[in-house]
Amino acid sequence: ARRLAEAEPFAVLGGRDFTDGARRLAAAGVPVIDVNAVPSATLQEDAPWLFTLRPAQDVLYRSFVAWAHAGGHLDGRVIGIFCDRLTRQSSAAAIDELNRLGHDVRTLIDSDGIGIGSEHDESAPARFAAEGVDLLLGFVGGSSWINTLRAAEGIGYRPNLLDLETAKREGVDIIGLSGL
């Protein structure tokens, strides 16, 4: 980051999953335009150097919950949330909104995956099933989502899925609303 700052670039365009690097550059005073959504707090912490092409992640997640609530997609459901290190803060905002609206958020599984999946991907479906989750909200990256759905299929667990698609996910044929 220091070397790049010394080169005095006009700005850096961060690619997919570059948020950690973008934050380091912003801390060094290098303007960065990132393609990933980040929480409002991150934008505030790294201002005036960090910008994103997407809305703030926590705002997007709360809006997604409001949309699902207004459409009746959450009514009577036992909800499970699957998040990761990059979505943890925004997933908490979504859970707060779900609770405020009176929905049953039964299970939160926080994966340590960072774009390459994690061991939680394979164990999550068994826990969701054991705790009676019938609607799964996956706020994880593509590899974790693919691994989790594959593991769910392997144990015969077929929850309803409500997926906020915010990134291209190659190899996933279950996108958007499934089973609702």
Protein architecture, described:
- The protein is an alpha/beta fold and 180 residues long.
- It contains 7 helices and 8 strands.
- It has helices at 2-6, 19-27, 40-45, 57-70, 88-100, 120-130, 142-154, and strands spanning 12-14, 32-34, 50-52, 78-83, 104-110, 135-139, 160-162, 177-178.
- The strands form 2 sheets. The protein has a 5-stranded mixed β-sheet with strand order 5-4-6-7-8, sandwiched between helices. The chain has a 3-stranded parallel β-sheet with strand order 1-2-3, covered by helices on one side.
- 36% of the residues are buried.
- Residues 166-180 have low confidence and may be disordered.
Rg calculated over all Cα atoms: 18 Å
Largest sheet: 5 strands, mixed
Beta-strand proportion: 15-25%
Q: Using DSSP, what is the number of strands?
A: 8
User: How far from one another are the termini?
Assistant: 46 Å
Q: Determine the number of helices (DSSP H or I, runs of at least 4 residues).
A: 7
